[in-house]
Design goal:
Pfam families: TM1266-like (PF21699). With 80 residues, this protein is an alpha+beta fold. It has helices at residues 14-27, 57-68, and strands at residues 3-12, 32-40, 43-55, 73-79. It has one domain (3-79): Alpha-Beta Plaits, CATH 3.30.70. The protein is built from two helices and four strands. The chain has a four-stranded antiparallel β-sheet with strand order 2-3-1-4, covered by helices on one side. The mean pLDDT is 92.
C-alpha cells in the first residue's frame, strides 16, 4: 500500500553531488508529492532536501539506497 511519508536528504559537498541527486529524484518523480530544498546559509556546501512521498516502502528503500550510495549523501525516512 502506498502511504504518505517524509524523506530528508542531507547533502554534503553540495556542488559535487547535486547533479546525480537530481537525476535520482527525477527518475522517481512520480512518487514525490512535494519537495523543499534549502542550503545552510553559513555553509554553502551543505544542503537539505525534504520530500513528501506517496509510495510503497520497496520503492522508497530503493531510492534511499541509491542516494546513500553517493558520497556526501545521508537520508532519513519517516512514515506518517
Amino acid at each position: 500500500m502506498d502511504n504518505l511519508s517524509v524523506l530528508s536528504i542531507h547533502v554534503d559537498h553540495r556542488t559535487d553531488s547535486v547533479p546525480r541527486v537530481q537525476e535520482i529524484l527525477t527518475e522517481n518523480g512520480d512518487m514525490i508529492v512535494g519537495r523543499f530544498g534549502i542550503h545552510d546559509p553559513k555553509e554553502v556546501n551543505h544542503g537539505l532536501i525534504t520530500l513528501n512521498l506517496r509510495a510503497n516502502m520497496n520503492r522508497i528503500n530503493t531510492m534511499m539506497d541509491e542516494l546513500n550510495g553517493l558520497e556526501g549523501i545521508k537520508t532519513n525516512h519517516m512514515n506518517i
